[in-house]
Amino acid sequence: MDLAYRVLDDQLVDVDGRRCGRADDLEFDGELGSPPRLYSILSGNGIWWRRLPRPLRGIGERIFGPGVVGDDVIRVPWERVDHLDTVIHLKAKARDLGLGQGDDRLAPTIAKLPRS
Amino acid sequence: MGRGGPQDRGLDLKKVFQIALGIVAAVGGFVDIGELVFNAQAGALFHYKLLWAVIVGVIGIMVFAEMTGRVAAVAGRPVFDVLRMRMGINVAIVGLIASLAINLLTLAAEVGGVAIVLQLLFDVKFGTMLLLGLMGLVLIVYFVPFEGIERIFGYLGCALLVYVAAAVHLKPDWHDVAQGFVPSWHGSALYAYFAVGVIGAALVPYEVYFYSSGGIEDGWTEKDLGLNRMNTILGFGLGGILSIAIIMVSAQVLGPAQIDPSYLGTTALGAQHAYGETGLLLALLGMLFAVGGAAVEAAFSGAYTLAQFAGWEWGKYRSPSGAPRFTLSWLIFFALAFVVVATGVDPVILTEYAVIFSVVALPLTYLPVLLIARDRTFMGNHTNGLFADVLGWLYFVIILIVALAAVPLMLITQQGSA
């Protein structure tokens, strides 16, 4: 649980040092009676609003998306985490994990501006 | 730091030069439209009696900025990262919405201020100057590197030092000035409103978000803690002297002539009174770059805030396409600020709202920074010492009192006009 407290809401950084989202929620597994094990990090627009107070969740869903894994929520298996320091360092590129898609979609448009 | 070899001495000199540059940039960057509006009105209405409020505000921003700079250097975390990590998503979302709204208000006020000063300098229609001023700011931010931006606005903003010269030149009664540094109570809501305004104008949070994110952009590490301390103490301290000078000049020139500096341009009359046309031009030039620099800081702060909350790539050191959502965010902030000012709302009124609501939202970002700065898990051996801790909690109490009093005082005094 200390690990969960440490990881939740932290910055995700890919293997190239690119900031690519936050640990918006966590998934655990484990049997009843045994200690839970951190299974994966969930990141994306469709997930963080689920932690808001109940009356605001409907608004969150309407604005930020329904929270579909693989679409507006990305699951990062814990095995893909390289190490933790001031951020969560991942072992792979953001693009390979499906993270940072918003920046990737906008980059070609911004690249048309001078000196970008 | 070096131990005497020529190369080490070179490094020491470089460090000293870096500190000097940081301080000069902080002096020019500290004063914004909030200081110009509240300090000039405080001086005109209450003579030197609110000088103590500048000291309270300046020590507060030193404490807050030093902690955020230290957290950035040691833990590598900017303010909104800390807010979300330490306080959780629910407090962070409130902080985010409040900060974005206040940043937009502040940016609109600063952009409007730039347009007013340009209008005074070139005698062209306000709308034209608003458009040209905004385009100038966007082009500078887009094409000039981070250090260049800091230096252009910081150095040229130092033209405001004309107020310090004018404050002395006008031969104030130094006994009265000294008495102004002793907190006093006058039993009037208007006095309390301006005390809150002067403290709030010094403590505007966008400066701290910008400072902390800038530390991370500059790659600060534990080795830069001395630089952080020097920048905050000397830079904000000297910036505070500018604020004091604005109050003193206003008290000596505008107060006796019963001129109400509710129009930004009247603030420059004090410098003109002391040094004629040269004084007026220096004051306007200083105002242009100080307010322009503040506009840049506010736009960046908005984009930093959003990107740090969401975990996007951010930073001026990245190419625009390397941090596309961050780039788009500050461009949108400038566009929204233009729309707000173009509606015809008075930038001075906007400034007053921006300062007062900044004060109200300040505890939301101040508390998590204070908690992280005391947390050995994140800060190792660089947690707050006893002095920093006492000051940190003392200022949390002061900020809470000011935050609770701000809106009632604004309503009671009808924004200082009662």
Major sheet of chain A: order of its strands?
2-1-7-6
Give the strand tally of chain A: 7
CATH 4th-level superfamily of chain A: PRC-barrel domain
Gap between N and C termini of chain B:
56 Å
CATH class of chain B: Mainly Alpha
What's the structural domain tally of chain A? 1
State the oligomer: heterodimer
CATH topology of chain B: Amino acid/polyamine transporter I
* Number of self-contained structural domains of chain B: 1
Largest interface: A-B, 29 and 28 residues
The shape of chain A, in one word, is globular
Describe this structure in words.
The complex is a heterodimer of chains A (116) and B (418). Chain A is an alpha+beta fold and 116 residues long. The N and C termini of chain A lie far apart (43 Å). Chain A has one domain (2-110): PRC-barrel domain (SH3 type barrels), CATH 2.30.30. In chain A, 30% of the residues lie in helices and 26% in strands. Helices cover 79% and strands 0% of the residues of chain B. Mean pLDDT of chain B is 90; it is low at 1-10. Chain B is globular. Chain B has one domain: Amino acid/polyamine transporter I (Up-down Bundle), CATH 1.20.1740.10. In chain B, helix 3 (51-75) packs parallel to helix 9 (189-202) and helix 4 runs antiparallel to helix 14 (347-373). Chain B has 16 helices and no strands.
Question: Can you give keywords for this protein?
Answer:
heterodimer; A: 116 residues; alpha+beta; SH3 type barrels; 4-stranded mixed β-sheet; 3-stranded antiparallel β-sheet; 5 helices; 7 strands; 26% strand; globular; B: 418 residues; mainly alpha; 79% helix
